[in-house]
Amino acid sequence: MRCKTCKQDFPRARAGRTPIYCSAACRQKAYRSRLVSSPQLIRLLKSDVDQKARESEALRVLRQLGYAVHLKRIGPVRKRPSPTVRLIK
Length: 89
What we know:
Layout: H1 24-36, H2 39-64
């Protein structure tokens, strides 16, 4: 077998799916290269930029109309810890 990433020969496993990569490192390297060259990633980045542009345009219009707009970043919602059960003598 020959690794798809590093082109080195490696032994084939006796059972299971036929491996494509010689190691987990080569598999991760291939994943990263696919991610960088992916049109889907470019679409996601473009949608993020478009969303920011829409947000800034909406803020500009609201401020022109006389509204005082302040953005506040909201963090993750924290759950209250569940009450513990204790035995009292």
